[in-house]
Every structure is written in structure tokens, then in C-alpha cells.
Amino acid sequence: DLAVLIGRHGFTLEALQTIINAFVSNELHFYYPVTIDVEEYKVRRKKKVEAIALAAAARARNRHGKVSLSPMSPAERRLVHIALLGDSSVATHSEGVEPHRRVVVTYVRKNRQR
């Protein structure tokens, strides 16, 4: 059952990747990043996080306000920031303290030129 390797919300997979990276770095005496993926979980999760970001941007625009996302890992928060980077109608920032740090998507009111 490969779901055991992924773990709840990918925590086991991230922990395994951290351990492998530490071992490889120790053996090579320099940091060489190793990515571990099981059943393309990370690819699917990336697409899901990007979809969550786009939906949050749409909600922020519709409400003309802020939308707080669920707490995410630093890598997932970065994906949200990158996904919305080209959208000038919203701004993003992270707030909170690990492990409860989250992205907030805020509607940016466009100034009318006179």
C-alpha cells in the first residue's frame, strides 16, 4: 500500500525526502536536492494547490476582500504565490507561525484614472 509512504497530507513523504536529502548531503559533503514522489502524488498536489489558489483569487475578487487558505507547507505556499503572481487583481502574503502558517489572498482595488 503506497498510501502509507505518502502519509496524511503528504507528511510522511516529505519526512522521507528530508531524511534522504540529509543522508545524501552528508555522504557527498555538499547539498544535492533529491525529490521523492510516490504515485505522482506531488504532481497531483501541485495541480490541486494551483487550483485552490485560482479559486481563492476568484473568491477574493467577488467579495472585494480577503480569503485565508488552510495552513500549508512552505513549498505549497510558494506554489500559491507563484500561481497568482501574474494576477494584478489580487495580492498574496503569508501569515501565522509554523505549522499553522497560511496564505492570504487579498483583492486589490484598481485606482480609477481621472
Write the layout of secondary structure elements.
Blueprint: H1 3-6, H2 11-28, H3 41-63, E1 66-68, H4 74-83, E2 90-95, E3 102-107
Antiparallel strand pairs: 1-3, 2-3
Structure description:
The protein has helices spanning about 5, 10-30, 40-65, 75-85; strands at about 65-70, 90-95, 100-105. The chain is of the alpha+beta class. It has a 3-stranded antiparallel beta sheet with strand order 1-3-2, covered by helices on one side. A hairpin with a 6-residue loop joins strand 2 and strand 3.
Give a quick set of tags describing it:
single chain, 114 residues, alpha+beta, 3-stranded antiparallel β-sheet, 4 helices, elongated
Concise account of the structure shown:
The protein is an alpha+beta fold and 114 residues long. Helix content is 48%, strand content 13%.
Classify the beta-strand content into a percent band.
5-15%
What's the alpha carbon Rg, rounded to whole Å? 18 Å
Identify the strand order in the major beta sheet: 1-3-2
Largest sheet geometry: 3 strands, antiparallel
Q: Give the ordered list of helices and strands.
A: HHHEHEE
**Terminus-to-terminus distance:** 63 Å
What percent of the residues sit in helical stretches (DSSP H or I)?
A: 40-55%
Unreliable runs, pLDDT <50, ≥5 residues?
A: none
Give me the count of strands. Answer: 3
Helix/strand/pairing class, anyone? alpha+beta
Determine the number of helices (DSSP H or I, runs of at least 4 residues).
4
Mean of pLDDT: 92
Shape: elongated
